[in-house]
Amino acid sequence: MRFILQCVSQASCTVEERITGAIERGYLVLAGISDSDTEETANRMLKKVAGLRIFPDENGRTNLSLADIGGSILLISQFTLYADCRKGNRPSFVKAGKPEHAEQLYRYLLETCRREGIGARVEEGVFGAYMQISLVNEGPFTLVLDSEELLRK
């Protein structure tokens, strides 16, 4: 599982001229899912997201978590995070999860965020749709989280 996590002051997702999700301060999370990912992988990734202290405190130091600032999450499924661009000029997506599996885990990520209170609000995109994502990245502060690296002991 791969996440691109961006600290934002606002972010939104639009599909067919309709806003499907919008947040103020918090995280825009682009989530790539592979066939080897499981609910356990998702839980560990979300635990890391919830625990990150990357928002500035009163002294400007990155010391506050999403919960500390009352921030929200906009979670977008993005299979292109598993693009393989090593050969030729057209990316291969064979490492991306099959749609049925990826959508099930995407829904699990959303439900877990909501159930566990990861984010004051949890907004979403539309799985498999052509989406337009707008954001104001603060910092800019962008992290890449890869389950293969996070789960390595």
Walk me through this protein's architecture.
Helices cover 25% and strands 37% of the residues. With 153 residues, the protein is an alpha/beta fold. The strands form two sheets. Strands 1, 2, 3, 6, 7 and 8 form a six-stranded mixed sheet that branches. The longest helix has 18 residues, at 99-116.
Give the structural class: alpha/beta
- The level of helicity is 25-40%
For the report, how would you describe the main beta sheet? 6 strands, mixed
Q: What order do the helices and strands follow?
A: EEEHEEHEHEEH
Shape, principal axes of CA atoms: globular
Q: Measured on Cα atoms, how large is the radius of gyration? A: 15 Å
Enumerate how many helices there are, as a single number: 4
N- to C-terminal distance: 16 Å
Q: Round the mean pLDDT to the nearest integer and report it.
A: 95
Beta-sheet strand percentage?
Answer: 35-45%
Uncertain regions spanning at least 5 consecutive residues = none
Give the number of DSSP strands: 8
